[in-house]
Amino acid sequence: MSSILAMHVAQPSRRDAYLDWLQMLSGAALVLFMWSHMILVSSVIIGPGAMNAIAGFFERTYMAQIGGPLVFAAFLFHFVLAARKVPFRAEKQGVAWAHAKMMHHRDTWLWIVQVVTAMVILIMGAIHMWVVLTSLPISAEKSAARIQGGWWLLFYLVLLPMVELHVSIGFYRIGVKWGVIKADARSGAKKAENILFGVFMVIGLVTLVRFMFLAI
Hints:
Radius of gyration: 20 Å
Shape: globular
CATH class: Mainly Alpha
CATH architecture: Up-down Bundle
Structural class: mainly alpha
Low-confidence stretches: 1-9
CATH topology: 3 helical TM bundles of succinate and fumarate reductases
């Protein structure tokens, strides 16, 4: 019986291991980028001059012109690697949902949340990067004008929690998958994940409020 079942279970290969490593490395790099990006953009809370000085530095060193497209490429590369394990067919999605409800396993639900947020980020994140990279240079006044006009505030109020959920869960799951977070340390790691999510959500919301009331 076990031999029959084994025939229907895909055995992981060395190629799968390499792709998992690349997925982990690209994911970790994007997590660090998103945290750094949030901190740099939130410099507008101090004042528009602080944000403009940082943006000007990135412009003068061509980090914005070169780094932006590289980040976008890394973003797409990571999604392609992660998509290998995402159930796109309706029947597979139903199976994953049924298993999650049956097992009542928090980490399984976290994976489902990460998949859902990834789909939202793929679309909304691409729109955000396209708008920013095609309207260089970056400035506090230009960002404020975008958020104060049209539907962009609602756009970022949706994108912000999607990104922070995906990033905080991804940081936790990387640690669990690669053995950095041991079984007896998961409870503490989950609390740290929640704290990280809360901290960056507060920073993001305060930043949006600052842009809303920034004189342009």
